[in-house]
Structure formats: C-alpha cells, structure tokens
User: What shape does this take?
Amino acid sequence: MISAKIFIDGESGTTGLGIRERLSAMQSVTLKSLPSERRRDPAARREIMEEVDLVVLCLPDDAARESAAMAASLGNAAPKVLDASTAHRVDPAWVYGFAEMEPGQDARIAQARNVANPGCYPTGAIGLIRPLVDAGIMPKDFPVTINAVSGYSGGGKSMIQVHDTTNGPAFELYGLNLEHKHVPETQRYGGLTRRPIFVPSVGHFRQGMIVSVPLHLDTLNGKPTGADLLAVLEQRYAGCDLVRVVPPQADGKLEPEALNGTDRMELSVHVNQKHGQAILVARLDNLGKGASGAAVQNIGLMLGLHAGVGAREMAHA
Assistant: This one.
C-alpha cells in the first residue's frame, strides 16, 4: 500500500478542517501537524515540510505565497504543494486543479509539483462554460453572465460567525463592485477573452451552492438547441465519477443543499426552445467539490493514492 505523509498548513480553518477529516479516513495517509504554539515558527514549518511528501496550503493569499516559497527553497527535499488559496490560481507555473476541466487535466495534476485548488464558484462556472467554448458553440469573446448563490460557510470566519450567532441576512448580493477574486480564474480557465460579469450571493444556510449561466440560444454559434448544449456537456463528462450531467427537474425548481456532504457536482440544462432561451446550472457543495473535496481529489492524483476519486466516494468504493 502506498503511504504518504501530508502537512496541512492552516488546518484550523474551514477548508483545512474539511481536508483533514477526509484524509483521516484514508489508511494510505499519515497526517503531520505542528503544536499550536509552533505554527508560526519558520524553523518548525521548514522542518516539517522536509519530512512530508505534500503540503496543503489553507492560508490567506500572502501567507500562502510565503509558505510556497519556503517549500520551494528546500530544493531536492521540497514537497509537492497544493494551494487552496487564490494566490496561484492564474499563475502559469502552477497547474489548475480542476481534474475534469478538459481531457488530460487529471494527468497534468498527477505530474505536477505545484497545484492550485480551484475556487468554489469557478468550479461550477468553468464546468458549464469551458465545454461550450472548446466545442466552438460559445465564442471566446461571448458576454457571459454568471449568477450564483452559496451557503455562508464559503464566506470565511467572520461571515460564519455572523450567521451562526446573530442569524445574518436571509439573502444578500455581494461583490457588486465587479472585482470578485474568482473572476480571473473563471475567465482564464473558462477559455474566455472577455471578462464575464459575475454576481455572487449568499443565503442563510451553511453550505451548498448553485451556479447558473443564462443564454439566448440565437447568440451562440450555429444557434444550437438545448439538446445540442446537453450533448456537449454529456460528451465532456462521460465516465467522470464526480461531475455528472443530470436531467432538469420537472417542476422547474432547484435547491442548493441536495449535494451537501458529497464531493460531487451536478450539471443540468434548462431550456425553453419556444423562446430560444436556456439556463445552464451547476450544483455542488461549496465545502465538497468546491473546496475540501476537490483538494483531496487532487492530493490523490498528485500522490497516486486513488486517482480521480474524492474521499467521500473512496469510503464507499
């Protein structure tokens, strides 16, 4: 049995705890930790990095850059690095950790020394957009609009505290300055040359996510039908364990919490052919395929533990 040693730098945060929980269930992994009083000690962090096969960074962006540089400075003793922050997601020296994004991406992750874990919103948006761009149906300069709602656990400690203690608002839009940090990776890995408009929101539920992309079919190349869009998505994700294309619900409704506790993502196409309109929808757990689940999937690929399968699925394999 392959055995790997892993250090989670920043294991006390929401994503770090989720990764630790998943990895703890895997017999092929040994988790290494520092006592709380030594977690900011550079010497202690360098020492533990030298001991492990892979370091997971669950840190703010600046701290993640510092930690990645420390790992790289170890030369031949440097571990592989998976960064769960935003710091390296559009860095060409890092491989983007969305294994299903395009054919061969899982192999690139498996061969990489440095992998950037995707953001939760971009996972859904890229999963919907990239296949259409690659198929030539959506022009690269298409004026894409992305609407999304997430549970409040995706907003960090301060947002979680507000919702857990004072209940927080039932629903709110945010990022209305159109400078959300997830837009650059969405544009880059969505294959778009025009910056998309991204409208995120948060609801008063802990986790779960829906990402949607509305489309006028006659503005796409070849004026495709809804069936054409569906066929492109089905072809791209055929055989994928964690990304599945599913039929739309008959009642025309979709709630965001159905995949909570899993590492899966479901994609669907909702179309009104009479009006020539469609809505592409991705549903996922923002803490699963949107964060910790994707991280464990990437760890499995990088270390050859169980390529392409998330920890929640491993437990039932």
